[in-house]
Amino acid sequence: MAVTKQSLKVMIVDDQNTSRLLMRDALDQIGITNIPFAKDGEEALKMMMTTPAHIVISDYNMPKLNGLQLLQAIRAYPPTAKTPFIILTGSGDRAVLQQAIKLGVNNFLPKPVQPAALQKAITAVVGNLK
Domain of life here (predicted)? Predict the structure, then answer.
C-alpha cells in the first residue's frame, strides 16, 4: 500500500509551541494531518521507539537532545535508522549543516517554514503523495 497524504505520519519536534503550531498549519495546508508533536529531542526519541513516524521534522536548537543528537540517535536504532529526517534551522551555520549531512540528514528547511518549501522537502524524501 502506498503512503498517502492522509496516512503519512509526520512528527514535529520543536521546543517552541508556536513553531510546532505553525508547522502543523503548514502541513495541514498541504493535506497532511497525522502530526504527532514532541517538545524536545528526548521526548521525540521515546515516541520513535514505540510508535515511529514516517518522517521526522526537527528543530536544531533544543534543550535535552538537540536536532543533531536526535538525528544521531534515530540513525543508531535499527528500526528507525532509515526514517527520513528533515532539520529546521533558523541559522545558516555551515558547521551545523555539515554535521547534519555527516549524520545522514535527508533535507534542510530554513525557519520560518513556508508550505510550498515544506511540501517540496517532503516530496524530495518520500516522493509524490496522492
Answer: Bacteria
CA 27, CA 10: separation in Å to the nearest integer?
9
Q: The sheet that has 10-13: what strands, in order across it?
A: 37-38, 10-13, 55-59, 85-89, 107-110
Q: Which amino acid is at 36?
A: P
Which grid cell sits at 107? 533535507
| Cβ contact 71:85 at 8 Å | yes
Looking at residue 1, its pLDDT comes to 43
Helix (H, G, I), strand (E, B) or coil at 3: coil
Domains of the chain: 1-9+18-56+67-89 (3.40.50.2300)
DSSP 48-117: HHHS--SEEEEESS-SSS-HHHHHHHHHHSGGGTT--EEEEESS--HHHHHHHHHHT--EEEESSPPHHH
